[in-house]
Design goal:
Aldehyde Dehydrogenase, Chain A, domain 2; six-stranded mixed sheet; 485 residues; seven-stranded mixed sheet; single chain; Aldehyde Dehydrogenase, Chain A, domain 1; binds nicotinamide-adenine-dinucleotide; alpha/beta
Length: 485
Amino acid sequence: MIERGHWIGGEWVAPVEGAYLDNPNPATNQVFSRVARGTSADVNRAVEAAKSAFPAWSKTTVEYRAALCEAIADRIAARAEEFAALESQDQGKPVSLASRIDIPRAETNFRFFAGAARHSRSDCFPMPTALNYTWRRPVGVVGLITPWNLPLYLLTWKVAPALVMGNTIVAKPSELTPMTASLLADVMAEVGVPPGVFNLVHGLGREAGQAMVEHPDIQAISFTGGTSTGATIAATAAPKFKKLSLELGGKNPTVVFADCDFEKAVAGTAKAGFTNQGEVCLCGSRILVERPIFESFVTALVERVKAIQIGDPSAPETGMGALVSQDHRAKVESYIALAKEEGGTIHCGGKRPELLAPFDQGAFLEPTVITGLSHDCRVVQEEIFGPVVTVHPFDSVEKALALANGVRYGLAASVWTQDLTKAHRFSEALQTGMVWVNTWLERDLRVPFGGVKESGVGREGGRYSLEFFSEVSNICIELGGPLGE
Ligand code: NAD
């Protein structure tokens, strides 16, 4: 049994109140580790450590911090198999997916932000009699709160820019997936990140997370998670004037026009719907298909989805693992039951697969394709965050746009058409922070990442992250008259 306390001030410490949380592997429902159940007392210790480390750390050079980030990336690469196995054990995802996506991205996050910081520039605004230039300094102690779906991937997406910009960190991973964040703390120690620069507090959101958001000495909160949690965090942080970045939920449309490359669109739609068990904020769970190809598209999609192999996350042929927890599976199943009540047709999935022990105890659920639901029902309006997609026909571009924008979320969309003008005109009318055309989840780390409406506030990625994790000042120097006068 692995046991992890908090990583504070460069050492593992037991929780002040002595409580731990059991951490089961969702694929078997067997508890394989325990983590500290942090409280405000632990958060206070972590903030003190981060505050003590800040003066020296914030004075180090960008080059020094970038080199440390690269050393962290090297160690993640060296321990990639260990990271991938733990991520799968914690989250339920296939090891192959963690090895291909999650862990390489975590490594790249550190390399990318090391380079981005080295190449960052400041602005200059010359006047006839004065010179203005912008100067960036770190924010101070920053709080990073992350979800369970892409645990190390999303944590490092915040840790790397925060570190390289000279902040000190208190991070809290999801209580459901605490293990790779703990291994990251080991890596920080291996490469010599000074004590107190990176602190990790484990625990529940309403306890440790809430204590972080309330803490007066945490100057910025970068949060990725659900929309209702984001609302609670915003309500707590706003009166304290903390900097806030909120990356929240989505109910993303995949819009398929009749003039698409059919095979490519079917493959892309299946990938967008079911990658990581449908547990990606960017997953396309509302599929809108132009009427002339609707029937053939549903048939082809269902055929492809039925071929996804589900089961043992460590088997190389497994395409879909377990959902993150039994509770989460129950929530997803409740939406499938609701879809049936509301007259939906289940074309495939909708039930638990029959698996051999020990996976018969795991939180598995077959990938599910539903048609026949009206667009305003809860199954279509609310984020399910599991392997469930609904497919709807449309007859005009205007109707497709109204359906695509007809939810409270606005994170991402994908559009499938070979008509470039339509692709552009449709994309610019979509109320989302990101649009992919004829692709999905193709990522360049420099581009702005984030949502509109109830999908979030702010952007991450490239210079957007560097800006969030720094405060900009304008310095104006009076120059007097021309030289020699
Ligand atoms: P969640 O909101 O339940 O939890 C996220 C994190 O917040 C966890 O670490 C949790 O412990 C913590 N937390 C919970 N209550 C808190 C509080 N009151 N104060 C401070 N922290 C608190 O989300 P989840 O279930 O872990 O993740 C799934 C959600 O995350 C989905 O809605 C998904 O769309 C969203 N998500 C968004 C993005 C994005 O980039 N927009 C990426 C991944 C996931």
